[in-house]
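Lab notes, practical 5.
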Amino acid sequence: MIINIKVQGIKEAMAKLDPEKVKRAAAAALNRAVKSGRTEASEQIRQIWDIKKSDLDRKIDIKGALASNLSAILTVRGKPINLLYFPTSQIAGSRSIRLKKKGRISADAQLKTGRAGRGYSGVTSQIQLGHKTVLPKAFISRATKGGIPLVLIRSSKAKSRSGRKEGLLAIKVITEASIFKQGRVLQKVIAKIKTQWQKEWDNQKKQLQSGQGWMGK
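Output from the prediction step:
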């Protein structure tokens, strides 16, 4: 998904001031505007989805603008998210275990007594803030040989190594990129970039016109 935000005022400034300095000033303003968009994207996503800032921010990249290429790019990438990036716990009788932290995933999922009775098992997870998802008969697997813990469930969509009709399927959810595309998040990010661009560009123009600041050197 590509979103183009057209900025105003660069050509007009180049006609009145040193074009090379204008390009450098515009690149600086663009980069600061896009960085503010990255911060806004992270904040808006975390207002809806219960994911850690550190886990999310590393999936939001910026390709900065240069004086020779006045184009800055904000990219939100990622594969479907492991359910254990969200607050998740397992219910299975009265037993309890603690999974060690592996990689960037905090898998301190505590097994608790199920309300539905001693034989009940499943996994609960809060993907969206204020909304709990229940997955009956799912379970949290320990990581093996450098892997990461996963929430697994038996499904006919997965192949079974033991010849059973159902294999084990890892539960993963919406991608970071799909979250970013949602209307509320996207519109807030676009609005932030536009507002910040105007603020930064106005500041750069003042420095250019006065001959002060880093652009006056």
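Observations recorded by the TA: Confidence is low (pLDDT under 50) at residues 94-118. The CA atoms of residues 8 and 198 lie 9 Å apart.
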